[in-house]
Model the fold of this input.
Amino acid sequence: MMTKKLFLTFLLISFSLTTFFGQRKLGENALRENTYLNGNGEVDTLRNTGATKVILSGKTKYTDYKIFSHDRDTSYIDTTLTLQKEYKFNFLRKDNFELLAFHNQGQTFNNLGYSFDNVSRFSDIGFSAKQVSYFEIDDIKYYEVPTPTTEILYRTGLQQGQVLDALFTLNFSKRLNVSLSYKAIRSLGAYRRALVSNGNFRGTFHYRTENNRYEVRGHLAAQDFFHQENGGLTEEALQSFIDEDPNFEQRSRLDVNLENAESQFDASRVYLEHSYKLLAKKDTLNDKDFSNLKIGHVFTSENKSYNFNQTGTTTNIFGSANPSGTTNNDAEHSITNNEVNLEFNSKYVLGKFRAKANLTSYSYGYDTILNSNSSLNKLRLEGNAIAVGADWKAKIKNFQLNADASLTPGAGRLAGNYLKGEAVYKKDSLYTLKGSLLISSKLPNFNTLLHQSKYDDYNWQNDFSNVNTRDLGFSIASKWINADLNFTNIDNYTYFNENNLPQQFENQITYLKVKANREFKLGKFGLDNTLMYQNVSSGSSVFRVPEFVTRNTLYYTDNWFKGKPMLVNIGVTFKYFTKYNANAYNPLLAEFTLQNTEEIGFPTFDVFFNARVRRTRLYLKVDNVTSSFTEKNYFSAPNYPYRDFTIRFGLVWNWFI
Done:
């Protein structure tokens, strides 16, 4: 595929360039984890602030290996082994506590909880079930390293296949860094027609002049997601699964609803951001450079497409079909944004203030009418919009204040507003308090406004109102407890109903989510507990979540063998969520829809044995260990069973050349 070719080409170029551009070499003792500062006597780079300068060799410290987020927050390349690493060792590389995975890794997730504290500014193409592992602009990382650095993640797949996530980054100089990343997954799955083949390529760079007057950074992303779609088990196969029929212990024998369907989601993005200091003044009192005026430009061009293809005969699970219609539901979406901004950085505004203006153009739709039985009169939704806004960042003693606002006036499809503010108070290393507010108004995703299909019931053209979201959040992070509270109101909430049609809720959604985490340690043993409570006081008929979700991990950690060459982390994780009417998965729409016939809620036990040897972390995990002797009531969505007893192995390996 395109992403694989791009990755191989860039990788060859990068390794060739490394031969000619030298960097500081690490000594034999580089990045040895013998002097960490956590409970095992080690530096925990997940929590270390950088104030502790750990010497890796005569010239290099671990804090020299920097990772920058899109918002320019700094962290460090981390080679420790912690329980949080166990939670994140999946193809998303994120803690999926609020998600319910489908049986094959790389497929999709149902939701056990929702977060509205980071809503995007503009409407998207939709088909959200295919974008769970999509890298948004905010997900892209930039690097600064004193030596060429590589990280490899490998994990076995289900039945056949594997996950590979590779990173290579180097600095040609202190001021120029390039990184190349490629994540690929191919997994056959245990059930028929469940093959997954995904690819995510990311290439980044950032550069600044010697006096920091001009800065530029950017990235290229090319992503593709190919899935076979089986539509879940048939009624007869579902009953055989529940009844534990011994003839179907091999899951590939169970019949599925679709034998000839597949979906393809492709995306590409170019992002470029640069700025130039017009004026600079030296503040001798604080010894800081204040840019009295900085001009900047941000360019984004993103293209997405979704295709559902069914060869041969149609199926009745989607209703009647037009025999002359095309089986390819090929929707395309593109958006281009140009932003011009002026930034003022001074003690008189207590930080950085930036005013910005955006010109955005978009296009969504189809090339032709796919079903002659439909009454659609539009093939595409297109337009332009101008937005104005500002953001502000300030640090006042122990307080960090951030605000970001934008307004898109007019009556177009991009018209709306966005406001996000947060205040963070940090008391040394004892605790951190955070309060946040988000207000957003924008149209729902484009696939709810216009959709075409060979199937008669899947053609629509809607004129929906803006979805208005208000989220108020509070959190505390401390050595005693970590807790989050979010209170969300949503007007014109848009969803897919029991008939697989998009619809807006006439009343208001009122949603409360409280999540708390507390870890207890006794010697070499630990007990990590996370509990989430959710309540939908208004709108529970269309917005559905379990009332309680809990995860409890009992684990043992110790250094083994003489000289402590191996750190082990062994434990068992229990997870449970109360029963609720979980949304059903529709493979044609690549969306989740309401259903009122089946409640889902079940416990799982996962066992893990993890170890770290030097800079290599080894992971062995057994999923759903009790499935062979417990009731077969575990489902990711109606007709889609969760995974059975599964053993998987993987590792994460860092090289610092």
